[in-house]
Write a structure and sequence with these properties.
Length: 550
């Protein structure tokens, strides 16, 4: 592998270590438990975890659960599962920001005592009006000059539940004329009577994100607090909070660009609607890019890690082609997965000169490119299924598969020659009759004549019926992701269900998420929701052809 230059975050960390700002590092992934994780979060997990490994540091999973409105325990569990699956090994370093509510309260009291925070009675609308605009400086609140004693008493009364929701807030006292609007006396605590998933009804005041987050980082000893670009303007406030609270080794915020993928939907609002409208079958529908959807589709943690490495870390927003993710899963599965014969659109082929009751068990390599994967036995008999597209009555030029009078190789088996075909009353071909030449068995060293086409097959009496689901992008960015009314412009072909597929019997014993190459048609995995011993269901992870070259 070629040596990749260090990304800008690694450069910052190395400088901090060199200059003695920290001796080892600590990073964290801080999801809000208000939804399922998606591919973008995977980038943040792998970045933070990867840095901690690279510099011999530690990595925390911390639920940033300071806003009870949208948070649910259900999400806590799915997030833990997803972080582990993707490879963000936080060991026992699992934290909840809500466990720091007492310390956050104490921090607010400390600011009040320093004259750096005040209780404000302006309404939400007034606060907005006083805040000013990018062009206009803000105006001081009339409550800004309350005494420390008064502020302490009022803040305690806020905590004790003496005031109505929304009637008072605690604000940092910074600078109403700052060019950075986030510094214009931001709200740091609000009154809200909401039941919290962890602390129940203990609190009726909750800290705001910009105040809580730096405190969480400082309490845990995070050295580098890595977040996405939209927080760049919040960094001065982050620094203000950790400095005013006088933490001995204040954490440092570093921003990087979010990962965007083409032709996918990540917005919670849109996914929720797709689920409610029954267009997708839950948050883990294989067309989505939540981590659970990627897992169900058949992506592996390795492929996602490879993808993130190819994407790199940058400071400018851009979107990455979905084809690159497909390239990574192909690369990961290519040498690891058995190559099976499966017929997605079957047509019966009868070998008229093959004995009726005979069955041969042919030895077939599991993976032609990886001998270590060994061999398996595949039954061969008089009646087979082949792909409908491998036969044509009137073939175009350069069509080397079956047509009347033509001879092809049945993969790993014999040459067969098409003698006849049978149609139904609509003219549809329902059966192909061939003769085989016993001399031509694969591996027999036969050199008498050559054929140009090789097609795959499964033995009809031995085959297992399977359902196969083929996927396309759920939206097409070239055609426009949104309609005029703001709704999603969905690709009507994003899911194709094939119910009459046949696979070799060797899938016995396969389990959810197991994946395979189906020769000539792609990589497939066993669906974790709908597949069972009686009814095999496969998801196509990706086709074999690639439109992406690294
Ligand atoms: P969403 O609204 O998509 O769920 P979020 O930012 O609200 O995203 P959080 O739970 O706050 O979700 O995110 C946890 C961490 O994941 C944050 O540090 C955030 O910066 C990071 N993150 C979220 N989306 C992306 C993305 N697309 N690319 C990289 N990191 C991301
Ligand atoms: Mg989120
Ligand atoms: Mg968020």
């Amino acid at each position: 592998k070629e040596i990749v230059s260090k990304n800008f975050i690694e450069q910052i960390i190395e400088k901090d270590i060199e200059e003695g700002h920290c001796s080892s590092i600590m990073t964290r992934f801080p999801p809000e438990p208000n939804g399922y994780l998606h591919i973008g979060h995977a980038k943040s997990i792998l970045l933070n975890y990867g840095l901690s490994k690279k510099y011999g540091g530690k990595f925390n999973l911390r639920f940033d659960d300071t806003n009870p409105t949208k948070e649910k325990t259900e999400f806590v569990e799915s997030i833990i599962e997803d972080v582990k699956w993707i490879g963000g090994d936080f060991e026992d370093r699992l934290f909840f920001a809500s466990n720091y509510f007492d310390q956050m309260y104490e921090a607010a009291v400390k600011l009040i005592k320093k004259g750096k925070a005040f209780v404000c009675d302006l309404t939400a609308d007034e606060i907005k009006e006083y805040r000013g605009t990018l062009k206009e400086p803000g105006k001081n609140s009339p409550y800004r000059d309350r005494t420390v004693e008064e502020n302490l008493a009022l803040f305690e009364a806020m905590k004790s539940g003496e005031f109505e929701d929304g009637s008072k807030v605690l604000r940092a006292k910074i600078d109403m004329s700052s060019p950075n609007i986030n510094m214009r006396d931001p709200i740091i605590y609000r009154i809200a009577r909401m039941t919290h998933h962890n602390t129940g009804d203990k609190w009726c005041i909750y800290p705001m994100y910009d105040f809580a987050h730096p405190i969480e980082d400082a309490i845990e000893g995070i050295t580098h607090s890595i977040c996405t670009l939209e927080f760049e303007d919040h960094r001065p406030l982050y620094d203000w909070v950790v400095n005013e609270l006088e933490y001995p080794n204040p954490p440092k915020q570093i921003e990087f660009a979010k990962l965007y993928l083409t032709n996918v939907i990540t917005g919670k609002r849109y996914i929720k609607k797709l689920v409610e409208d029954g267009i997708v079958d839950g948050w883990d529908d294989p067309r989505l890019v939540s981590i659970s959807a990627l897992r169900r589709r058949g992506f592996t943690p390795e492929s996602i890690r490879m993808f993130m490495e190819l994407c790199g870390v940058s400071k400018s927003n851009s979107s990455v082609d979905y084809a690159m993710l497909e390239y990574c899963i192909r690369e990961d599965l290519k040498l690891k997965k058995p190559r099976m014969m499966a017929i997605l659109d079957p047509i019966k082929l009868v070998i008229t000169n093959y004995p009726e009751d005979q069955v041969e068990y042919l030895e077939v390599p599991n993976n032609q490119e990886n001998e270590e994967m060994g061999v398996r036995k595949v039954p061969f008999s008089r009646e087979l299924y082949i792909e409908r597209e491998d036969f044509m009555i009137e073939p175009p030029k350069k069509y080397f598969r079956l047509f009347p009078g033509n001879e092809v190789r049945l993969m790993h088996a014999y040459f067969v020659k098409c003698e006849e075909y049978i149609t139904d009353e609509t003219g549809k071909v329902v059966e192909i009759h061939c003769t085989y030449d016993p001399e031509t068995k694969s591996g027999s060293g036969f050199t008498g004549r050559k054929v140009k086409g090789t097609i795959h097959w499964v033995s009809a009496p031995h085959a297992k019926n399977a359902e196969v689901r083929l996927y396309e992008n759920i939206v097409d960015e070239e055609k426009g992701v949104y309609n005029e009314d703001g709704s999603l412009n969905l690709n009507p072909n994003s899911l194709t269900i094939l119910k009459e597929c046949y696979v070799e019997p060797s899938f016995d014993g396969s389990k959810a998420h197991d994946s395979y190459q189906f020769l000539r048609s792609g990589y497939f995995c066993i669906d974790s929701k709908d597949s069972n011993e009686e009814h095999l269901v496969f998801n196509r992870i990706v086709s074999l052809k690639s439109s992406y070259k690294p």
